[in-house]
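Methods — Computational structure assignment.
A single polypeptide chain was analysed. Its primary sequence is given first, followed by the predicted tertiary structure written as C-alpha cells.
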Amino acid sequence: MLDVSDFKHFRINHSELFADRQNHINGIENFWNQAKRHMRKFNGVPKAHFGLFLKECEWRFNTSDPSKQLTQIKQWVKRHLR
C-alpha cells in the first residue's frame, strides 16, 4: 500500500484559480483520474513498484492511440530481443 502520510493536498478554488495564464489544471486532473482508474485494477500497487506503474500510466496518457502503443511495444521488443 502506498504511504501518503507526508502528502500535502491543496484545494483549488476553481472560480478564482482555474487557469493561470496558460497553465490549466484540467490536464493534470485528467492524468490522475486515468492513472487511478488504471491502477485500481491491481487492487493496490507495491510501494517499491509504484514509480514503474506511474511511468506506464504516463506513457499510456501521452500515447493515447492504441495502434501507436502497439507499434512502440513491437519496436521495443525487437530492440531488446537482438
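Note: The chain has one domain: 14-80.
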